[in-house]
Amino acid sequence: MTQTSTEIAARVGEILNAHEGMEGPLLPILHAIQHAYGYVPRDALPIIAKRLNLTRAEVHGVMSFYHDFREDPAGKHVLKLCRAEACQAMGADRVAAHAQNRLGIEWHQTTNDGQITLEPVFCLGLCACAPAALVDGKVVGRVDEARLDAIIEGVR
Ligand code: FES
Questions:
Q1: Does pLDDT of 45 surpass 70?
Q2: What's the pTM value of the predicted model, to 2 decimals?
Q3: Helix, strand, or coil here: 140?
Q4: Which of 16, 73, 86, 156 could form a disulfide with 127 if both were Cys (CB 3.0 to 4.6 A apart)?
Q5: CA of 106 relative to ligand 1 center, distance in Å
Q6: What pLDDT score does 23 carry?
Q7: What's the CA-to-centroid distance between 84 and ligand 1, angstroms?
Q8: 130 to each of 18, 35, 144, 155, how far by Cα in Å?
Q9: Backbone region of residue 53 per phi and psi (left: phi > 0; alpha: psi in -120 to 50; beta: other values)
Q10: Which of 127, 134, 140, 144 for mutating ligand 1's site (highest number of atoms within 8 Å of CB)?
Q11: Is the pLDDT of residue 2 over 80?
Q12: Which of 87, 135, 139 has most ligand 1 atoms within 8 Å of CB, for mutation?
């Protein structure tokens, strides 16, 4: 269900109130909003900026610096592929290119059917089993093209 700007403003206002007086509140606020919606709605940015006496660009800059914050709702399933060094050394770039090709999307995009969102992640602590992936929060190791295809088939 899509929420109206008024509903978003009300909920974001509650979240801002809950963080009133906190030191360095921006990240906790963004996390709370993403927890509430699954992403950070664009309508929330000017509200946050005004309350924290920041520019909208400053809020957006922080959001885009941290890869965990989404600007749009995720698909039904979230496939994260590790982009860090150990995985790259084991062929993560090839697997990522295969994933983008197969799904027809780039990083941070969702397939047209709304099923799969593809996101980069930086080290899942599974370096010994690189390349690693996170499928709906579950870690998977030794992800080659064939295993990736199986993962995609498995969630569709
Ligand atoms: S570098 Fe990919 S899991 Fe550590």
A1: yes
A2: 0.82
A3: strand
A4: 86
A5: 20
A6: 95
A7: 5
A8: 41, 29, 9, 21
A9: left
A10: 127
A11: no
A12: 87
CA dihedral of 61, 33, 44, 69, whole degrees rounded to 10: 30
Going 78 to 83 to 84 to 89, the CA torsion angle's sign is positive
Average pLDDT, the chain: 94
Return the number of other C-beta atoms located less than 10 Å from residue 49's C-beta. 17
Q: Which atom of ligand 1 is nearest to the CA of 131?
A: 2
Per-residue confidence at 145, pLDDT binned at 50, 70, 90?
Answer: very high
Distance 74 CA to ligand 1 centre (A): 23
Do 109 and 118 contact (CB within 8 A), yes or no?
A: yes
Nearest-angstrom CA–CA distance, 12 and 150: 39
Instruction: Give the Å distance between the CA of 127 and the centre of ligand 1.
Output: 4
Mean pLDDT computed over 71-97: 96
